[in-house]
Design goal:
The structure is a single chain. The chain is mainly beta and 67 residues long. It has one helix and five strands; from the N terminus they run βββββα. It has one domain. Helix content is 10%, strand content 43%. It has a five-stranded antiparallel sheet with strand order 4-3-2-1-5, with helices on one face. The N and C termini lie far apart (40 Å).
């Protein structure tokens, strides 16, 4: 599913932290988002955005155990 302007989305930062954002603009494969409580905006590809916080959490890679 693609996100419409005004949609709430979640993004994973540095494979560590999940942040909530709103879609400001959608174009071919790229979305301009603004983080909740933020003033600036960034443009990201579709594969970085998630519909739910749970989906974003599931995408975080778990570190391999060191022996």
């Amino acid at each position: 599913m693609d996100f419409a302007e005004g949609s709430m989305v979640y993004i994973v930062e540095n494979n560590l932290r999940i942040r909530k954002a709103v879609v400001l603009k959608a174009s071919v494969g790229l979305f301009t988002i603004q983080f909740e409580g933020g003033k600036g905006a960034i443009r990201v590809s579709r594969n970085r955005l998630f519909e739910t916080e749970e989906a974003a959490q599931a995408s975080i890679r778990k570190p391999k155990p060191r022996l």
